[in-house]
Design goal:
- By secondary structure, the chain is α/β, with parallel strands linked by helices.
- The protein has 20 helices and 18 strands.
- The strands form 4 sheets. An 8-stranded mixed sheet has the order 15-14-13-7-12-11-10-18. It has a 6-stranded parallel sheet with strand order 3-2-1-4-5-6, with helices on both faces.
- About 5% of the residues have low confidence.
């Protein structure tokens, strides 16, 4: 966020000082972590208050083992979860589910595969423990050994598969966004209530400890009155170099030679294997096996599973691009029928974080000290464009919006009270990744920065040069500047947070499993149907505003799972050209 390395270090030291001071999970951070009792990444159970293991791990099936599905597999803690089945129609996804993603060290770290996770030496051994359903996910849902399912499918399938699973007696954790429409989200919430099944949605920032610490810092008044949040997610994707336009197997496009990148890579990698020595031999063998599985995707009859051909025409009716059903399957994020674009895939996380922070501010001044889960926005104005890409997609490559949330004291009936608002600006662009992604929270006493979901920085007002000291005054904790470096408390806070911060995937899976094993009305996922519905309303309404180029006022009934009204069917929005 445009800070020098020295300024970043000062900000991180300041944040750790605030944490160690006791503004977040005091006893845990001073005792459990310092004693090394949760070495190996088991922080979530201590931090969020659920048990360190289940004794009887939850038996789950994973439906959809693509990019996000394999991330969730990589986050599984065997003390909580036993993966007994997977379902996917793509050979590439099934291969990665077992072997991990060997295309880069970074990919392998987050997608290590089931064999590494459970210590199985071969895929044959792994398949003796994990059933593979490569024809019909419904077979997995009907498997009596499966107690619960994780859904990592394209967005348009979240609702139908989750509803079918709950009605078959399975608990569900689905990747975000909850569903493609607000009506589908409400139906999912309704079915969860009717069946008594636990439904969780993967907005993992609810389980990211840095975000929870930031929430506590806001709640305790350390940065003063939160009055503005700026967030962004910038990526350097360009035509011919787009992470959402994954390479297609040769012959995928009708009437064209097709994308031969995979075939060329295979030829080149086999040459690399022939020259490799030592440990490099295994590396190239793993990469080649993965690439051969990716090429086998050409055998999938995507139309059989409901994927559709795309014929894109210009204003004169000339065909500019033609995509097969297999391309819609592989590149589902690029098409309106199957995906939700930048706001759903990226922006929903950050607007969710904004509402968490704003809820913390409201909680700080509320008479009823029960935790406030979500604050609903008042308005959104948005715009979007496809400035860089041409005909090979329907979603925008740039999106920008401004939302207004109610601040404490907001009163629409009072001339001054109706102006008590908190502004949130957000942008997600392609073509230039400068600045990366993160959130900046502006308060009257300090500024809080969260970057890449793994670094948090705290500054006194706009001062990025001074280290801070926390002092207790009559009005609560305050920031004072000091010339010296932070003392033992800050170091203790740094140790508590750790150099490799969990993004929350592991913790959301653990807590979901723990809630299922410990049924009680009090044991609920931190992002259950009502919270997830709120995130979906924000993201999907922002998409409508961007695509119609309009300002929309949110209505409370959209956020109520028991009410039928939705932004998609609102007459005031529908009549707008």
């Amino acid at each position: 966020m445009y800070l020098t390395p020295e300024e970043k270090q000062i900000g991180k030291d300041n944040f750790n000082t605030a944490v160690a001071y006791g503004l977040s999970r005091r006893d845990l951070l001073k005792g459990t972590i310092a004693a090394g009792l949760v070495a190996g990444g088991g922080l979530g159970s201590f931090y969020y208050g659920y048990g360190k293991s289940l004794g009887d791990p939850l038996r789950i099936g994973v439906i959809g083992t693509g990019d996000e599905g394999c991330v969730l597999l990589g986050a599984v803690n065997p003390e909580f979860i036993k993966v007994v089945a997977i379902a996917d129609i793509r050979p590439y996804n099934i291969h990665r589910a077992f072997h991990g993603d060997w295309y880069s060290d970074a990919q392998l770290k987050v997608r290590p595969g089931l064999m590494a996770k459970y210590g199985w030496k071969t895929e044959d051994e792994a398949r003796r423990h994990v059933k593979v359903y490569d024809k019909d996910y419904r077979e997995l849902i009907q498997d009596p050994n499966v107690e619960a399912v994780v859904i990592g499918l394209p967005l348009h399938l979240h609702a139908p598969v989750a509803i079918e699973a709950m009605r078959a007696g399975k608990h569900v954790l689905t990747e975000k966004l909850m569903a493609k429409t607000v009506a589908e989200c409400k139906e999912m919430a309704k079915v969860a209530a009717e069946t008594g099944k636990i439904l969780a949605v993967g907005h993992q920032r609810h389980y990211n400890i840095l975000y929870d610490n930031a929430k506590d810092i806001i709640k305790n008044g350390l940065i003063g009155d939160l009055h503005y949040i700026r967030a962004q997610w910038h990526r350097a994707n360009l035509p011919g170099r787009d992470s959402w336009a994954q390479p297609l197997p040769p012959g995928t496009r009708k009437g064209e030679k097709g994308d031969d990148k995979l075939a060329k890579d295979l030829e080149n990698w086999k040459k690399q294997l022939a020259k490799a020595e030592g440990a490099e031999i295994e590396k190239w063998q793993k990469k080649i096996a993965q690439l051969e599985a990716q090429i086998k995707d050409k055998l999938v009859d995507a139309a059989k599973y409901g994927y559709e051909e795309k014929v894109v025409k210009d204003a004169a009716g000339n065909v500019k691009y033609q995509a097969s059903p297999l391309e819609e399957l592989i590149r589902w994020r690029l098409w309106a029928r199957t995906g939700g674009g930048l706001m759903v895939e990226l922006g929903s996380h950050q607007l969710d974080a904004a509402s968490i922070f704003i809820a913390a501010l409201h909680e700080a001044v509320a008479k009823d000290k029960n935790e406030i889960k979500h604050i609903h926005p008042l308005t959104v104005a948005a715009g979007g464009s496809r400035s860089l890409f041409d005909w090979d997609r329907e979603i925008e490559d740039h999106l920008y919006c401004v939302l207004e949330f109610p601040a404490p004291g907001y009163d629409p009936k009072d001339p001054l009270g109706r102006l008590r608002k908190i502004g949130v600006s957000y942008a997600s662009i392609n073509g230039n990744g400068f600045g990366g992604y993160g959130e900046i929270v502006f308060g009257t006493k300090g500024t809080l920065i969260l970057e890449l979901e793994k670094e948090s920085m705290l500054f006194k007002e706009s001062d990025t040069k001074s280290r801070i000291e926390i002092k207790e005054g009559k009005g609560g904790p305050t920031i004072d500047t000091q010339a010296s470096a932070p003392g033992h408390a800050a170091a203790q806070g740094a140790a508590a947070i750790g150099p490799d911060v969990s993004r929350g995937y592991r913790e959301e899976l653990e807590h979901w499993a723990w809630c299922i094993r410990n049924p009680d009305p009090k044991n609920k996922p931190r992002c259950g149907p009502e919270v997830a519905l709120g995130d979906a309303v924000i993201a999907l309404t922002t998409n409508i505003a961007a695509r119609k180029g309009m300002r929309i006022e949110f209505k409370e009934e959209w956020f109520d799972p028991k009410r039928p009204e939705t932004p998609e069917t609102d007459p005031e929005i529908s009549k707008t050209a």
